[in-house]
Every structure is written in structure tokens, then in C-alpha cells.
Amino acid sequence: MAQSDTLILPRPAAKGHRFSLTPLADAMFQLLIFFMLSSSLAPYSLLTIRSGPERQQAGEIVPGDEAAPDDTEVQALGANTVLWTLEPEKVTIGGQTFPYDALSAIAEGLALNDDAEVIIILRNQARVQDLARVLEALTAAGISAVQIIQGPT
């Protein structure tokens, strides 16, 4: 018999099936892109602001609405109370209309009165971003007595 010159190497033992992470990473990346795109479709600054339950003349709750605490009602206006009507890109104070750029100066002037109170009246077109800008200016000036109410429709 002739000897062959082929060398036979032993096969390594099978280690089992390895789990590939590539398809999982692909799926996670697709989900990430989906949620990033879908969350930018409705920016929070364009969401309308809704008020709480409506009240009737005597402070009774309209049927079907939940009761709100009595301290949320607007009391009679005092001498230190200022009404701010919030509309898109402008605020009406005492019958005068101001842009949002002037809010910090107005709030600082109002803060000179220690008992200053602000009632913000929201119009239907008011956006969350508009309210945030007004509240930021009032907070920076140190005015903490703020009430927010829904204006007439």
C-alpha cells in the first residue's frame, strides 16, 4: 500500500450557534430613526393650551366636569393686580400691546412693587411656548403671584 501525502487535521468541536447582534442593532436603529422623526412632527410650542373645567355664576361645576379647588378662582382685582392678555407673539397689558422682547423690562418694572400680582389671560391662539416665555420673564423678575385663566372664546 502506498502512503498518501495528505495530512488530515482534526475538526474543532462545534461550539453551538452564535447569536448575531447585527439584525438587532439594525432594528434598534430603525426604531430610533422612527421615533426621532415622529416626535418632531408636532412641536410642543404649537400645542394649544386648554383650561380646566368651566364654572357657572355661583361657583358650581358644570355637570360632567370634575371639581376644581376654590382657590383657583380669580378674586376681585386688587390695586396691585395687572392683567396680561397672552396672544401669539404679543402680550396686551393695560390696553397696550408689547412684543415678547419687552417682557423682561416690563416684569422688572412691575417687580418694584412688592405685592405685584399678574393674571395671565390666555387666548385660543396662545401657544405653550408663548406662556413659557411670559412665565420665564416673570420668574426672572421675582414675581411669583401669577394666575392663569382661559380668556373668552
Automatic annotation (TrEMBL):
Entry membrane topology: Single-pass membrane protein; Single-pass type II membrane protein
Single GO biological process annotation from the record: protein transport
A family per Pfam: ExbD
Transmembrane segments: 27-47
Major site of localization recorded for this protein: membrane
Keywords of this entry: Cell membrane, Membrane, Protein transport, Transmembrane, Transmembrane helix, Transport
Recorded GO CC terms: plasma membrane
Family annotation (InterPro entries): ExbD
Recorded family membership: Belongs to the ExbD/TolR family.
Protein name: Biopolymer transport protein ExbD
Organism: Cognatiyoonia koreensis
